[in-house]
Structure formats: C-alpha cells, structure tokens
Automatic annotation (TrEMBL):
Cross-referenced InterPro entries: PPIase_dom_sf (IPR046357), PPIase_PpiC (IPR000297), PpiD_chaperone (IPR052029), Trigger_fact/SurA_dom_sf (IPR027304)
GO cellular component terms, semicolon-separated: plasma membrane
Keyword hit for Isomerase: yes
Sorted UniProt keywords: Cell inner membrane, Cell membrane, Chaperone, Isomerase, Membrane, Rotamase, Transmembrane, Transmembrane helix
Any GO molecular function: peptidyl-prolyl cis-trans isomerase activity
Alphabetized Pfam families for the sequence: Rotamase_2, SurA_N_3
Main localization of the protein described in the UniProt heading: membrane
Protein name: Parvulin-like PPIase
Similarity comment: family membership: Belongs to the PpiD chaperone family.
Localization, UniProt: Cell inner membrane
Length: 641
C-alpha cells in the first residue's frame, strides 16, 4: 500500500487537515486537465444526504492525492496508485468528508466568513514577497489552477465544519496504566540467538547453460525480459523571460499598497504561547496551579490527559480561534504569566505566555524599495499567469503543441522513448534534464491523441508545455539483445535452488537435534559459522534504518525454535535459532511510557473519530454507485476505453 496515503488517511488530525492540504496543493500544482472531462465525468458515484458526488470530483481529488504521493515517490503512476488502492481510499475519504459536513450542517453547525477569511489569509500558497497574504497572489494561483474563489471558500467552510466536529473527540482521552506499562515493557524485551546463512554466491556456478536452457528460461520468464511501455515526450519550457517586461510600479501604486497593508508595516505585537484545552474546569484549574508551582506546562498537560500546543499568534487570530476573553487575558499578561482557566467553545483554556514579540512601525520611506520590488514581482507573476491562461485557453480551443510552440517562439525538446521513471533503454547514455521528473507525472498518463498540458516547474516561475508524440507498447526484448542477462539469470536460478536445498537439509538436521553450528559445518560446501545476534524490540522500530529480517523473525518465534527465511534480493537463505528471551521492564523508563501513552491516546481518538464518521454517514444516508466507481477505477487504472 502507498505509505504516504495510508498515513494521510488513518489519523483523525490528518482527516481534519487533508482537505485543506489538497486545497493548498491544488492552487500550486494542480493539473487542470480533469476539467476537460472524460467518458464518465458526469456520472454520479455516490449520493450523500441528498448531495450527489460526481466522478469528475472524485477524479480531481484523486489527481491531487496522486501528486501529493508523488512527492515521496516521483515514479508512482496513476495506474499503480489505482492498483494499490489509492482511488478506493480517496473515494471513501471524499464520501466520509461529505457525509460529516452534511451531518454537521444538519445540526446547525456552520463556518463564519471571518473564519474562512482567516484560513485563506494563512495559506502559504497565497503569500506575496512580504511573507503575508497577497490577494493578487491568491487570484493568480486560483486562475492558474482554474479554481474559483467560491469553490475554495466552500471547500474551506466544509473543512472547518468537520474540524468543529472532530476536534472535541481528542479532548480528555486517558489510557489506563494497566494497558500502557505491559506494552511498553514488551518494547524493551530482548531476544538473542544464532543466525547462519547459506549465500547463493557460495554455490559453484556449474557449466555454462546450453542454448536450449537459455531459450527455455527466456520463454518461461518472458516478463522479466519485457521492456515496459515507453513514451517519446516533447516539451517546451517557458517562464517570466518569455513575457514582456511590465511597467515599473508607480508612486501611487506604492502608496496604495502601503495603505492597504497597514497591518504589515504598522506596529504590531504577537505572543509566543503554550495553550492547553481541557473539557473540565476543575482539571484546568489544577493544571494552572501545577504550572504556577513550577511544573512545565507540557508535563502538566500530559498529566491532565491533554497536550500543550505552542504557537506564535496575534491577538485577532487568538480571538478568532478561541474567544475574545482568552485573547484579552493573554495579551494583558506579562511574559511568563499563566492565564485561565477561561471557558470557550472548545473547552477550558489554560495559556502560558512564553514571550512577548513587539515590532515597531516601519515608515513608507523605509519600505518603499521593498514594496516596489514586491509589486514588480507581482506584475511579472500576473503577466506569466496570463500567458499560462492564454495557452490553456488555446489548448481548449484546439491549438496543437506545434502551433503553440511556434506562436510563442518556444524551443522544443524531444526525448528518446522513455520508461515511466525517465530512463531511455534504447539510449542508456542519455542524461535526463533536471525538469523531466516533474513532467513525467502527466506525460506518463498521456497518449498521442491527448491535448498538450501545461505543467508547473518549481515554485511557479517556470512552466512547460508537454505533449506525447509516440507511445511504444511493451514488448519482449529480442533474445539476442538480452542473452547475457538471460545467462546470468539462469546461473542465479541454479544457485538459488541449490542454496535452498542445502538450507533445507541443514534445517532438517538442526530440528532433529544436531546443534546448528554442527549442521552448518556438515554442509557439502564451506559456509560461515552461525553468528550470535540479538536486539530489543524497540530497536527494530527505528525509522532511520530497516530492521534485519532475521532479527524481526526472532520476535515471532518460540524459545529454541529454528526457522528459515530468505535473504533479500535472492542472496541466499538465513537459518535463525532463537536462544534466549529477556523480558523488559518499563517501570524505570518514564519517557517511553509517556510516549506510548500518547500513541495509544491518538489511536483511541482515531477510532472514536472513525466510529463518529460512520454514525454520521448512517444518519444522513449514503448510497454508493458501485458500477460507476468500478468504471472510474478502470479508466484511471488504464483499463477503460
């Protein structure tokens, strides 16, 4: 399964943020080709509380999810994404989102325009050169993505409603110590034993394969020697150097910008705070007392079953997120002060002021150059965005790749026939240019009859007009071209089979009572003696390196048991004997216990959220069109017409 997507869809905070991630991702890198429509575009794939969910909407969200997953795995294609269950998860997620929003609206929950404005203003994709919200940047980004402001606001409103429903689920969940301590101790359990190996490389290669063996192996394993589908890609790069230089900002424009952004250049104050929200007033009051007595707020929050969230925030934003009373108290407190408990919509707030960050006013004379540069950049961006829009409009009107490249005087690059990962098997010496990986995401899904598309490169300062001029179907490589590979594969297959046979014989002797070291020494070939090895279970969970398969196997074995496991990449076979099990004791490991408690609490909150969403879905009513979903998946997976 796609690791990124599995993580993105199995945590309720991720559920709460995923739609906004898609929105922010959409306005910076969406491929608008879905808007052109495909065969099942108008089909309804589900009805949720009276709202019809179209295949086009599901396709758009799938495109976005794929692009996000490709940030971890650039070689991931839509076909592979579909085959690995990505489309199913997107559709399930979209139905859940819609059902939860419908249920919330049914209960009278809404999102104010002010709250929506705040989310838009804090979206980095809409920031200008000053690092602040820039309406011009937002309009340019939405125009590029072909998303209307109304659609953006509707998406954000729905997500804010979902957040209001899901956020309270995470408050006040406590996990019993009787569950945490035994599981923490299991992580400290240590196992050790012996590991032997029968490496394939130790097996004599034997006589050279005969022509008959070579041909038979080639035919029996034709898939291993088949060259996948390839594409010849044509593209033309363009950017701000391809648009006419806009006029320099005037004094009037600079003055107007300064006045419109008075909040940016005027005196301001933010505060670095740590806030805890608890459902119970007494628990919140106890937390205040502990913090004032010297306990770190993070530790005090954890003891109370909550979490201290640190942030830098302005008064208006805090009033919007919590309440005016909370904001007034926080901004009246001195640095180091603790305020609360104060009641707000989400519960009782306790806030510690870690720092007061004051910024003096900057006069126009001091920032005139900065503003002029920002306006000049904005004008260049708008001119480039206009060019992108004009090219996309021309594509929609039927203009070809060659017509557009000639009209815009763009240099055309033609690649060799490329695999989906950008390699050119017919020209192995060919070096892929740095922009190619970003173009493959769309090119790998295109055919020769498809319209060209415009792809964004980098941060949106460069673009590429992309088309596919030839699709070379997958076909077996001729035997004479891969004969050396086939010979090597035949030899490897021989040694792998012999290594397995030797490993099986050693295993049988060891199970019959022969010590593992003696059974290995009696093998018909010289093998290394078994080595002692061991680890604690927690050491196998490290993210910076994969756990060795033999050590992982030990934690699923009984004491004294011997098992066989394949070495990676057909390198041979491991013989694993578990010798000793030392139980762990986490009573003196408070950091581990606290970490595991937090993980269990998150798991519990995720399960509560899933159950809540399921109940909301039943209440509003969800009807899936399985046939339409199957058709959409077939199209996205490359099996449609």
């Amino acid at each position: 399964m796609i690791s990124f997507f599995r993580r993105a869809l199995t945590s309720w905070p991720a559920l709460a943020l995923f739609a906004l991630v898609l929105i922010a991702f959409a306005v910076t890198s969406i491929d608008p080709s879905w808007i052109n429509g495909r065969s099942s575009g108008g089909t309804q794939i589900a009805t949720i509380g009276g709202r019809k969910l179209s295949a086009n909407e599901a396709r758009q969200r799938t495109d976005l999810a794929l692009k996000q997953a490709q940030r971890e795995n650039p070689e991931l294609s839509m076909a592979a994404f579909t085959a690995q269950g990505g489309v199913d998860q997107v559709i399930d997620q979209l139905i859940s989102f819609t059902a939860l929003e419908a249920w919330g609206r049914k209960q009278g929950i809404s999102a104010s325009d002010r709250l929506i404005d705040g989310e838009i203003a804090s979206t980095p994709a809409f920031f200008g050169l000053t690092g602040r919200f820039d309406r011009g940047a937002m309009q340019a980004a939405l125009a590029q993505a072909k998303i209307s402001e109304r659609q953006l606001r509707a998406d954000i409103a729905g997500q804010l409603i979902r957040n209001q429903l899901l956020s309270p689920i995470d408050s006040g969940i406590r996990m019993p110590e009787g569950l945490i301590l035994p599981n923490a101790s299991l992580l400290l359990e240590q196992r050790s034993g012996l590991i032997g190996i029968v490496p394939s490389a130790a097996i004599p290669a034997g006589p050279a394969p005969t022509p008959a063996e070579i041909e038979a192996f080639y035919k029996a394993n034709i898939g291993r020697f088949t060259v996948p589908e390839r594409r010849v890609i044509r593209y033309a790069l363009f950017g701000e150097n391809d648009v006419a230089a806009p006029a320099a900002p005037t004094d009037a424009e600079i003055d107007a910008f300064y006045k419109a952004n008075a909040a940016t250049y005027g005196a301001s104050e933010t505060r670095s705070i740590a806030q805890v929200i608890l459902p119970d007033q007494k628990a919140a009051a106890d937390l205040v007392a502990r913090v004032k007595a010297g306990t770190a707020i993070a530790d005090a929050a954890r003891q109370a079953g909550g979490e201290a969230i640190t942030t830098d925030i302005a008064r208006a934003k805090l009033a919007e997120n919590a309440s005016a009373a909370v904001a007034d108290a926080v901004f009246a407190a001195a640095q180091g002060g603790v305020v609360g408990p104060i009641k707000a919509d989400l519960g009782w707030y306790v806030v510690k002021v870690d720092a007061v960050n004051a910024k003096a006013e900057r006069p126009l004379a001091a920032v005139r150059g900065e503003i002029a540069e920002s306006l000049a950049r904005q004008k260049r961006d708008e001119a480039l965005s206009t060019m992108v829009g004009a090219i996309e409009d021309a594509i929609a009107d039927g203009a070809s790749f060659d017509d557009l490249a000639k009209e815009r005087k763009l240099a055309i690059v033609t690649t060799p026939a490329l695999l989906s990962d950008g390699r050119a098997p017919d020209q192995p010496e060919w070096k892929a240019p740095p922009e190619l990986p970003l173009l493959l995401r769309s090119a790998n899904q295109m055919g020769t009859d498809d319209d060209p598309v415009v792809e964004t490169i980098g941060a949106g300062q460069r673009y590429a007009l992309v088309a596919v001029s030839q699709v070379v179907p997958a076909e077996p490589a001729p035997l004479d071209k891969v004969r050396d590979e086939v010979v090597a594969a035949v030899r490897a297959d021989r040694t792998a089979k012999q290594a397995r046979a030797i490993a099986d014989a050693i295993l049988a002797k060891a199970k019959a009572g022969t010590p593992l070291a003696d059974a290995i020494a009696q093998a018909p070939i010289k093998l290394p003696a078994p080595a002692k090895a061991g680890a604690r279970q927690i050491e196998l969970l490290r993210n910076d390196r994969p756990a060795p398969p033999p050590l992982k196997l030990m934690f699923g074995m009984k004491k004294g048991e011997i098992r066989l496991i394949a070495a990676p990449n057909d390198a041979g076979w491991f013989l694993v004997q578990l010798g000793e099990i030392v139980p762990g004791d986490a009573r003196n490991e408070p950091a581990l216990v606290n970490s595991l408690r937090d993980q269990f609490r998150r798991i519990a909150s995720e399960e509560y959220a899933r159950q809540f969403i399921a109940a909301a879905s039943r209440d509003v009513g969800v009807k899936r069109n399985d046939q339409a979903i199957a058709t959409l998946k077939a199209e996205l997976g490359g099996q449609g017409q």
